[in-house]
Design brief:
It is built from eleven helices and nine strands. The chain has 270 residues and is of the alpha/beta class. It is globular, with a radius of gyration of 19 Å.
Length: 270
């Protein structure tokens, strides 16, 4: 299946891993309306792509993303924007963050240069965050009179309420080691060589994990916060039964008893 073509994203598929590049480094790869819409479209395309094991998000020009498109917000800052239009844009952004957080593939955010405001929120939706040692992070919205509204749930999910609350309220700037200490970043590396090595390790680690099982547990985790204990138990039982009776589950159990690698760990089609 061919990948869609986009204007604000460059896509590279190799060895069942997709790299998504934000391609506007001159403007520090902002989350424009066009890029938001294209990320939503990409998420829709990836929903059923079990042949793609993982997705890496990066920014061209050595910068991840400076966040929202402030030039596009200028009319609102000047009191000329329609309130409903601002709401619709916010809802579109929220849908994009949610869609990326719920991708069935394993997602890796590679942070170079800066991840600011919505860019930091985007990083928080990833399953793994790798940061180059010189990267900087900030939830800068309150410092220009705004709020990190749509990214707040993802920040709380990743950092916990206490840390997320403090960072959202203060807008403080962090370096990569500080972001790692707080739980935003999983691994700090040096330069492009360090990034490349971390990605190789990640792909090797994930090779043994069944893609359908990864998708299933990600779907379960996404629903946990809104479920009652009874709903959680029922959903978990249904998910486990589905996986136990799936072709992938049967192959995994057979491989275990036959002391061999399952098909997906050998690079075979699922």
């Amino acid at each position: 299946m061919e990948l869609p073509a986009f204007d604000t994203l460059d896509l590279e598929l190799a060895d069942r891993w997709l790299t998504v590049w934000f391609n506007d480094p001159a403007r520090r790869n902002p989350l424009t309306a066009a890029r938001t819409a294209e990320l939503l479209a990409l998420a829709g395309h990836l929903a059923d792509r079990r042949d793609i094991r993982g997705v890496v998000f990066r920014g061209r020009g050595g910068v991840f993303s400076a966040g929202g498109d402030l030039k596009a917000f200028q009319a609102a800052f000047q009191g000329q924007a329609d309130r409903e239009a601002v709401r619709r844009a916010s809802l579109e952004g929220g849908a994009m963050f949610n869609a990326l957080a719920r991708l069935p593939q394993f997602t890796v955010m590679v942070i170079e240069g800066a991840a600011m405001a919505g860019g930091l929120g985007l990083a928080a939706t990833g399953d793994l965050v790798i940061a180059e040692a010189g990267a900087r992070f900030s939830l800068s919205e309150t410092r220009i009179g705004l709020t990190p509204a749509q990214i707040a749930p993802h920040l709380v999910a990743r950092l916990g309420m206490v840390v997320a609350r403090r960072l959202m309220l203060t807008g403080t700037m962090m370096d990569a080691p500080r972001a790692q200490a707080l739980g935003l970043v999983d691994e700090v590396v040096e330069g492009e060589a360090g990034i490349a090595a971390a990605l190789v390790r990640t792909r090797a680690d994930l090779a043994a994990a069944a893609p359908g099982a990864v998708a299933a547990i990600k779907a379960q985790l996404a629903l946990l916060p809104g479920q009652t204990p009874e709903e959680r138990a029922t959903f978990a039982a249904d998910s486990f039964a589905d996986r136990m009776l799936s072709a992938e589950g049967r192959e995994g159990i057979a491989a275990f008893f036959e002391k061999r690698k399952p098909a997906w760990a050998q690079g075979e089609d699922d």
